[in-house]
Design brief:
The complex is a heterodimer. Chain A is mainly alpha-helical. Chain A has one domain. Helices cover about 80% and strands about 0% of the residues of chain A. Chain A is built from five helices and no strands. Chain B is mainly α. Chain B has two domains: about 180 residues, no CATH class; about 50 residues. In chain B, helix 1 packs across helix 9 and helix 2 crosses helix 9. The chains are: A mainly alpha, B mainly alpha.
């Protein structure tokens, strides 16, 4: 299992270096204005792309579209947009997911 | 004032408790079932502090994938953290080296998204941003450790009917939806979705990163157009 410890240590170090990269290098310098404009969109550019395949093709159904998961995702987004509240979005999405899973089983 | 910023950060991150706790439990349980001892399981959660990548590394090592493949795949899953680092740098680049090291170690999707959102609503002095960030990061990281431990010690299989596979998508969607404030944000979001679906076949999750770059470009361009129209 020494191999596993090597893996854990290298993954830990590698992950830290990815996180530290720009934070470490900046040293008080500024990105140019156009780059800062791009970077402002990082959250809305990364998170939807990460989630989209998980919503449409969940691993747990072997990649088949699952109505319960799809509806839960839609409700989460709608509630989040309308209420501007992450909490209500999570609660609503979870309620929809469990409700539909229960009804459709 | 700093106390208030810290508390605001705590408050903003509170909804994620609902998700971090089961997700960390799940990691503890799955790692223990996979034959990892307590130190190794905790090693993952303490050294990586990265939910999705930890599951990927664990799963690949169960499939006896070559170590190099595991490293590349898990770090590719984490490559988005480098984008987060770049996006946070203009906000906290003036912080001391130690502060930036601590920020880097604790940087997660949640803390990043909440801090960017807070700073975008109104410009704030650095100490307030740091206090807010700390308020989001401290509970996230502590809960991740503690409930990995609980999962590893108490671990019995969590039934599939709990649908914990969907905890992560719901969290990310719930973080993201309130950020869709302008046409530029919506355009970036749609580009990211369409791009990542179209590039879903690209290995090591690189499709998501390409889609993210496209989406950032689209967001920035729409913002420029809107400013020109408003001017």
């Amino acid at each position: 299992m020494d191999d596993l410890w090597t893996l854990i240590l290298v993954l830990g170090l590698g992950t830290f270096l990815l996180r530290f990269s720009f934070l470490g290098l900046m040293m008080g310098r500024q990105f140019p204005r156009w780059a800062r404009r791009w970077l402002r969109y990082t959250p809305v550019a990364v998170l939807p792309g990460l989630v989209a395949p998980m919503v449409l093709w969940p691993d747990i159904t072997g990649g088949e579209v699952d109505p319960a998961r799809l509806c839960a995702a839609v409700i989460t987004v709608l509630l989040g947009v309308v209420t501007r509240s992450t909490l209500y979005a999570i609660l609503g999405g979870a309620a929809m997911l469990y409700g539909l899973l229960w009804m459709l089983q | 004032m700093l106390r208030r910023s810290f508390l605001l950060g705590l408050q903003a991150s509170a909804p994620f408790i609902l998700v971090i706790v089961p997700f960390a439990l799940l990691f503890g349980v799955v790692a223990t079932e996979a034959g990892l001892n307590l130190a190794q399981t905790m090693g993952f959660s303490i050294l990586m502090v990265a939910g999705a990548a930890q599951f990927v590394a664990l799963q690949l090592s169960q499939e006896n994938a070559p170590t190099l493949v595991i490293l590349i795949t898990a770090l590719a899953v984490n490559l988005r953290l480098m984008m987060y680092s770049a996006a946070l740098a203009p906000l906290v680049g003036q912080a001391s080296l130690w502060q930036r090291i601590v920020i880097a170690y604790t940087l997660t999707d949640q803390s990043f998204a909440l801090t960017m959102d807070m700073a975008e609503r109104a410009p704030r002095p650095l100490p307030e941003i740091l206090a807010f960030y700390a308020g989001t990061a401290v509970p996230t990281v502590l809960l991740w450790y503690v409930f990995t431990l609980v999962g590893a010690v108490a671990g019995t299989a969590i039934p599939e009917s709990f649908a914990l596979d969907f905890a992560l998508p719901i969290t990310f969607l719930a973080m993201l939806a309130p950020m869709l404030r302008t046409l530029a944000h919506v355009a970036a979001c749609l580009t990211s979705v369409l791009g990542s679906l179209a590039l879903a076949g690209v290995p090591y999750g690189m499709g998501v990163l390409v889609a993210a770059l496209l989406a950032m470009a689209v967001g920035a361009q729409v913002e420029t157009w809107q400013k020109r129209e408003a001017a």
